[in-house]
Amino acid sequence: MRILSSTAIIIKKRDFLESDMIVTLLGSDGMRFEAIAKGALNGTSRRKNHIEIMNLISGTFFRSKNHIYLQTVQCESSFPTLKKNLEQIFSLSYILEIIEKTILENDPHPEIYSLLLETLTQANKEEISPNLIESTLIKLAKHLGFLPSFKSCSSCHKTLDEDTASWDPNSGTLHCASCGKEHFLHMPLKYRKALDFFQKAPRSECEKVFVNSEEKNVLKAFIPKLFESHMDSPLKSLMQI
Questions:
Q1: What are the structural domains of the chain?
Q2: What's the pTM value of the predicted model, to 2 decimals?
Q3: What are 62-78's pLDDT values in tens digits?
Q4: Which residues are paired to 174 by β-bridges?
Q5: pLDDT number for residue 98
Q6: Of 140, 69, 133, 148, which is closest to residue 109 (Cα–Cα)?
């Protein structure tokens, strides 16, 4: 048994028993973990207002043999500007659900914590980059190891330098015209270039890219497919965006 201190982002919460709450957090070390907040649902609890999804918190945690308990909590940032924007809330809820379902306990991803904190900080500004959510999702897919090569066929490794590549929605891979099958989806060259750029470029460069409304809709429809083939069940938050 020991006391731990941590800075973390709340990615999920749910009621537990009559007055407790289970909170899912992504720590600054990249660890995803659950903590029980005893009495957090009581009307007199001082912790309740600090325990909100998308809050950056600092806290102390008591680790027993079987559970982690949230003892003290202080909200460092609630990102209030972001939470006034319903569209941004839906989009970020989608990102949080992916993180909650894909990062395993005892499998730290500090780079994903940094990406999420940067995204929440950027989304909390009055003027938001139009490519913020798309670039975040692509970088998240990269960190999770879900991205295929956008430059070579996953089957024969031939260079994909023509506009004939196709996407296998079942395996999440790209293929040349020779290896593609009838049920595969055509992946235009300009979108492959955009996805490859967003995964590699720093945020400042991603913000400079102009994406028109038609292209944005195509990317918005395709990007979830990067995750679907790696997940056991559909993402509930996807239905809201």
A1: 2-77 (2.40.50.140), 82-240 (1.20.1440.120)
A2: 0.91
A3: 988 889 999 999 999 99
A4: 167
A5: 96
A6: 140
